[in-house]
Write a structure and sequence with these properties.
This protein is about 0% helix and about 55% strand. It is mostly beta strands. The strands form six sheets. Strands 1-24-23-22 form a four-stranded antiparallel β-sheet, with no helix packed on it. Strand 20 and strand 21 form a beta hairpin.
Length: about 280
């Protein structure tokens, strides 16, 4: 059973990130334009546009994805510094799911603010450059990486399929993506994912109130129930990376715990979140 890590009800909770140097969890309310952090106490920072995902660069610095760009964020002062634009020439899209990769890069998806079909894409920030990897994405999710750094995963939620793609020696996709898990027949909606230390992928499934686990070959292993139907993304953290955190969304539902952030010991060890090279 999952416990409540934070009872702050996010309209669209997303992007949980365990900072391995600070030993704290960061997460976002995308629609609330807010970044949260909880260690001994809970902190919050408001932004003037949507923010959705982050990677850690050092003890005090995060890379944050917003609806218009990538920024460094200094946690002690709250100061931001612009790094690179992210579809900054349009007001129709925003950032969504993202995660640092094993090579010091950062993958980030974009989508239409009203989830317009094929309006989004997935990009990679690497050594000062933003490059588009995949286009014609409606709701980008499930960005995560195998422990050996040779494979990436991602999904377009509306397609109900999680894909995998091989990576080269610098972390760039190589070859054609293949279907890793097909969720069309069970009619499940893949949201955010994370890969544990054994290479199993854990996927939050929007509307199903659970996080499902799939083996490296895509075989379903088990599912963990979450007390909020709109689960959005899991992350591993805590002592020895043995705690699973899960964000959720209160948007459009009337649930007692909708939008809260949860935590549980599930007998699994996660990977340490990768450090972004700015």
């Amino acid at each position: 059973m999952m416990d409540v890590h934070s009872d702050t009800a996010c309209e669209l909770g997303e992007g949980p990130l365990w900072h391995p140097q600070r030993n704290t969890l960061f997460w976002f309310d995308i629609l609330g334009s807010t970044l949260f952090c909880k260690g001994e106490t809970e902190e919050a920072w408001g932004f003037d546009e949507h923010v959705s995902a982050a990677g850690w660069a050092d003890q005090d610095t995060l890379l944050i994805a917003s609806e218009t760009g990538l920024w460094t964020f200094d946690t002690p002062t709250g100061e931001q510094e612009f790094l690179a634009g992210l579809e900054s020439d349009t007001s129709a899209t925003r950032s969504n799911d993202g995660r640092a990769d094993p090579y010091g890069g950062f993958w980030i998806g974009t989508m239409g603010k009203e989830a317009e079909a094929y309006a989004g894409a997935i990009y990679r920030y690497y050594r000062g450059e933003v490059r588009r990897l995949f286009d014609r994405i409606t709701i980008p999710n499930s960005i995560c990486f195998a422990p050996d750094g040779r494979r990436a995963y991602y999904a377009d939620t509306v397609s109900r399929r999680i894909k995998s793609v091989a990576l080269d020696d610098e972390g760039w996709p190589t070859g054609k993506p293949s279907i890793f898990v097909d969720l069309r027949e069970p009619e499940l909606n893949p949201d955010g994912s994370v890969v544990d230390a054994e290479g199993n992928l854990w996927n939050a499934q929007w509307g199903a109130g659970r996080v499902a686990c799939y083996a490296p070959d895509g075989t379903f292993l088990k599912a963990i129930d979450v007390p909020a139907s709109q689960t959005t993304c899991p992350a591993f953290g805590g002592a020895d990376l043995a705690t699973m955190f899960v964000t959720s969304a209160a948007q459009g539902v009337d649930e007692t715990q909708g939008g809260m952030t949860f935590a549980a010991q599930i007998g699994v060890t996660g990977q340490r979140e990768h450090q972004v090279i700015l």
